[in-house]
Design a protein that fits this description.
ten-stranded antiparallel beta sheet, alpha+beta, 2 helices
């Protein structure tokens, strides 16, 4: 029963995937992924509800905002150089304190979109969409000043 349900869900997902024009999905080599992703700002949404936006820099450092499992407010995150790096045929993420180094397959799903999927695990993924130039800054370490209050003007009638 579970196998039939899984097959049905996969078939529906496959039809939806093809219906959205992503039939030309292309698994990127680490070099292709680097050229497609590094230095650009992307919004992301993951399988378990985590969302955010950020940028990977040429040195492998990462900066952006993240909201874990769609709970709470967005947090600024900055990870050091060499956090994102190439291992064999995958792009991997190194974070101090983790017991393993997760690696990802990068699949280009459109001209400005890709999916990062945990290597070998089809059910763990994040979808990324490139943000336009109007979204260049996704976070700041400095607290923003409150916007100046605009006094409402009333005209006598």
């Amino acid at each position: 029963m579970k196998k039939a349900m899984r097959s049905t869900l996969l078939a529906i997902a496959g039809i939806a995937f093809i219906g959205t024009g992503a039939a030309s999905a292309q698994t990127l080599t680490p070099e292709q992924a680097r050229a497609f992703v590094v230095g650009r700002t992307y919004a992301f949404s993951c399988f378990e509800g985590t969302t955010g936006a950020g940028r990977i820099f040429p040195d492998g450092s990462v900066a952006g905002t993240v909201t874990f499992q769609s709970q709470g407010s967005a947090r600024f995150v900055r990870l050091p150089p060499n956090t994102v790096r190439v291992r064999t045929e995958n792009v991997c993420g190194f974070v101090d304190g983790m017991t393993f180094e997760p690696c990802f397959e990068v699949v280009k799903t459109g001209p400005t979109t890709f999916r990062g999927q945990l290597a070998g695990v089809e059910t763990m993924w994040c979808d990324f969409t490139r943000l336009g130039s109007e979204h260049q800054q996704v976070a700041s370490r400095r607290k923003t000043r409150p916007a100046a209050k605009v006094a409402s003007e009333t005209s006598p009638e």
